[in-house]
Each structure stands twice: as structure tokens, then as C-alpha cells.
Amino acid sequence: MPKQSMNPLQVLLRVGAAAAVLSLAACASEERTPATAAVAVSHNAVDNAISAGAPELAPQEINAARDKMMRANQALAAKDYKLARELAVQAQADAKLAQSKAASAKATAAADALNQDLRVLRQEVDRANSQ
User: Fold this and answer.
1) Which residues are CB-neighbours of 87 under 8 A, at least 6 positions away?
2) Three-state SS for 2?
3) For residues 116 and 108, is the Cβ–Cβ distance under 8 A?
4) Which of 44, 66, 89, 116 lies 20 to 30 Å from 98, alpha-carbon distance?
């Protein structure tokens, strides 16, 4: 049986198709790693916000962060790495906002308590000076 030779155009098409398949596989791998890392970072950010008291002091923000983190995990499971990364970054931002609001609320409460203590102290000093 005679050996068939491919013309240069067929060779070029096959090489191009193989290169396209390889580059698509590489892109999928390149997207998965940053998406996985972003989801892990957002998980840590949510945990930190919860530890800072966000569920009580910034419930809307922490709930938004939890929701986006859950959706990022779902997108990661569905291999939609771009969406997973975007949602994870948004979840991280929401968690940081929640943590900041919680810290701000605690600082405000501490300042208010200090101001109240100062008022009481001034009243005591005024009372002692008026006698």
C-alpha cells in the first residue's frame, strides 16, 4: 500500500490544532491556581472578620462575604475559574469591610465608655471643689 503524504497545508492545520489544544489546556491550569488561591484567601478573610465580631457588628457585610464565598466555591467546583476568582476577590473585599466596621464599632464603643468615665470623673472633681 503506497504511503500517502500530507500536503504542507494539512501539516500546518494539524500543528495549529495541536498547539491550540495545548494552549487551552495551559490556560485552564493557569486560571485554576489563582482561582483556588483567591478562594482560600477569601475564606481566611471571612474567618478573620467573624473573629473580629462582624456577625454582630457588621451583619450585612459579613453575610454578603459569606454568600460570595459560597458562590465562588460553587464556581470553582463547576470549573468556572474566572467567575470563582472574581467572586472570591469580592468576598475578600466584603469580609475586610465587615472586619473594619466591626473594629470601628468596637473602637467607638470604647471611646464612648472612656468619655462617660471622664464625665463622671469631672463631676466628682467639680463636687469636691465646690465643698
Assistant:
1) 68, 69, 71, 72, 75
2) coil
3) no
4) 116
Nearest to 62, CA basis, from 96, 32, 31: 96
Rounded Cα–Cα distance for residues 50 and 35 (Å):
23
Size of the chain in residues: 131
Distance separating alpha carbons of residues 88 and 102, to the nearest angstrom: 21
* Residue 45 buriedness (CB in 10 A; 0-12 / 13-18 / 19+): buried
- Condensed to tens digits (0 to 9), the pLDDT of residues 48-101 reads 999 999 999 999 999 999 999 999 999 999 999 999 999 999 999 999 999 999
pLDDT classification of 15: cutoffs 50, 70, 90: low
Residues 113, 129: Cα–Cα separation, whole Å: 24
